[in-house]
Amino acid sequence: MVIDSFAVAIERFNGPILVAHSPMQQRSAMNLDERVARIFGDNEPTRFGSGWMSGTTSVFLGIIATGGVACFHLPATLTSPEIRAILPLPWVRALIEGVIGLGFLLGLASTLLRQRKVLGFAGMAMALMASLAGGGRVPATETLPPVPFHLGLDWFLINILLLAVIFVPLERLWPLRSQSIFRPAWTADTVYFLVSHLLVQVSTWLNLLPAKVFFAWAVHPGLQDWVRSQPALVQFFGCALAADLTEYWVHRCFHHRRWLWPFHAVHHSSTSMDWLAGSRLHLGDVVFTRAVTFIPLFLLGFDQTPLIAYLGFVSIHAVFIHANVSWNFPRWVEALVVTPRFHHWHHAIEREAIDRNFAVHFPWIDRFFGTYYAPPGKWPTGYGIEGHPVPDGFMEQCSYPFRRQKLD
Ligand SMILES: [Zn+2]
Ligand SMILES: [Zn+2]
Fold first, then answer.
1. Residue 82 CA, ligand 2 centroid: distance in Å
2. Ligand closest to CA 252
3. From ligand 1's centre to the CA of 344, what distance in Å?
4. Separation of 43 CA from ligand 1 center, angstroms?
5. pLDDT in tens, 138-172
6. pLDDT in tens, 253-286
């Protein structure tokens, strides 16, 4: 009863479903969504002032606070040396204290506004637990023991907090579709986001390995010196261009090679586009694409600063182009840089848009190679793959390319 009502509430919040799931897919897709709904759901309204937004935000902040304090207690295991090196510790401590305080207050507000108190109590409990575990006051360990493997929990927490602060308001203020943050399969996409960040050490190692092992012989010091003598801004654009030209062809191969497509089909299985949808990438897709894309960057030998600036740009831009925002940019902007409208067409269910718009940064690469499709001012009517061949759920999608090949 509670779940049914919650589903109705979500449905009302979501607006029309654009592409229907098959009954079997819907049943498995809703598993984790449904389990979360079973714990936190109710049949009360979700409008502003109902305690819904304060409750969900409180739970979100409670998770961030608990994870942040865990990072302070187990820094060698849960955090990345690269992230630790650049984060200003006093700011992080202040941030954790702020998140705990805000999480607790929003939880309290939710319990006062809402009949079912589970959201508010859960948020308050996590904030309280994080505070009792030391909050932002946990002493930092001076020297960390060397560990062969670490998780990137700090990277996950910072990135999801930053992206949520940017994109949740944008998608509420300028929505393309009337859909909730908690649209179908949002839990699976969150798991993708979590796992890809936790495994940052492994994936970075795998991304760099092929270039260093197989292409070290091709390094030309004279060429690298010339590249590094260019202004940082030129190197930044050079980096983006080299990466996008490579990624265009890798992406195109993923669409046209029968053995590669099942890996990339996972990304195209999203029937809702939003800031989390871009996270749905099979590990095989991510590693193969990034490893090949890194080869020209490795050979050209860009400076660290433009390279890191480019990686920072990619991490925000890749999320932005999937976002549920209705922005129509001026034609000249759309011609120069990939916008959400361009990439939404890449995910479109319309037949004329299939195997189009492979570029990730520069749409004129698609114009040049004859694969551009984005009718002016128009957006797709829906997203996904015809027939919905990819199962729902994180684990099912991880094994899909291998099961699919066996069946073939
Ligand atoms: Zn694609
Ligand atoms: Zn995409």
1. 27
2. 1
3. 11
4. 38
5. 887 767 777 788 899 999 999 999 999 999 999 99
6. 999 999 999 999 999 999 999 999 999 999 999 9
Tell me the residue type at 347: H
pLDDT in tens, 214-232: 999 999 999 999 999 999 9
Q: Which residue from 348, 338, 283 is spatially nearest to 314, judged by alpha carbons?
A: 338
Backbone dihedral angles phi then psi of residue 383, each to the nearest 5 degrees: -130, 160
**Cα 291 to middle of ligand 1, angstroms:** 17
What band does 21 get if pLDDT is binned at 50, 70 and 90? very low
For 310-366, give the DSSP string.
HHHHHHHHHHHTTS-B-----HHHHHHS--HHHHHHHTB-SGGGTT----SS-THHH
Q: What is the pLDDT of residue 100?
A: 97
Q: How far is the CA of 405 from the centre of ligand 1 (A)?
A: 19
* Ligand number with the minimum distance to the CA of 281: 2
CA gap 64, 53 in Å, rounded = 16
Q: Convert 69-101 to b/e letters by CB count within 10 Å (16 or more is b).
A: bbbbeebeebbbeebbeeeeeeebbebbbebbe
Locate tokens 């798991």: which residue?
191
* Closest-approaching ligand to the CA atom of 253: 1
| Amino acid 19: pLDDT | 34
Report the separation in Å between the CA atom of 388 and the middle of ligand 1, taken as the mean of its atom positions.
Answer: 15
The bound ligand whose nearest atom lies closest to the alpha carbon of 344 is 2
Average confidence (pLDDT) over 36-44: 87
Domain ranges of the chain: 49-150, 195-407
